[in-house]
Amino acid sequence: CKARFVAESYTQTYGIDYLETFAPIAKMNTVRTLLSLTANYGWELQQFDVKNAFLHGELEEEIYMEVPPGYGNNLTAHIVCKLKKALYGLIQSPRAWLGRFAKFMIAMGYRLNQGDHMLFIKHSPSRGVTILLVHVDDL
C-alpha cells in the first residue's frame, strides 16, 4: 500500500502562496537531436528517475498548512504547520525542485544550455563530454 500527503493546491492564491509556477520542459528538437547524435556516434544512453523529487524542492514562499487528519490530537485541530520543503500537489513544486537540481548540477561543473534550459553539458579532459537532458513531470 502506498500513500502520500498531497497539498490542496486549489486553495493556493497567486501572489500570496506562490509567485511563479513555470518549470521548463525539454524541447522536442533537443530530444530528437540528442537521440540522433546518440545513434550516429554509438554513445551510451542512460536514464534515471529521481524518487520523491518534489519533496526535495526548496520553497521561496512561506506556506502554512493545517495538521493532516489522524496526526496529533484534539489540541492540534486548530494548529498550522510551516512547510520547510515543497510537497506533492503544490503549484510551485516542479519549479522548486528544478531550481535546486540546476544549482547542484552547476556546482558539479555542468553548464546550463542557453537554448534549452533542461540541457546540461559538462566537458572533462578524462571523460569527454557528458550531456544530461532533464524531464520534469508530476505523475
TrEMBL record:
**By what name is this protein known?**
Reverse transcriptase
Domain (Reverse transcriptase Ty1/copia-type) ranges: 2-139
Q: What GO MF annotations does this protein's record show?
A: RNA-directed DNA polymerase activity
> Keywords in UniProt for this one?
Nucleotidyltransferase, RNA-directed DNA polymerase, Transferase
Report any Pfam family annotated for this entry.
Answer: RVT_2
* Designated gene of the protein: RT
**Can you tell which superkingdom this protein's organism belongs to?**
Eukaryota
This chain's source organism reads: Ephedra distachya (Joint-fir)
Record keyword Hydrolase present: no
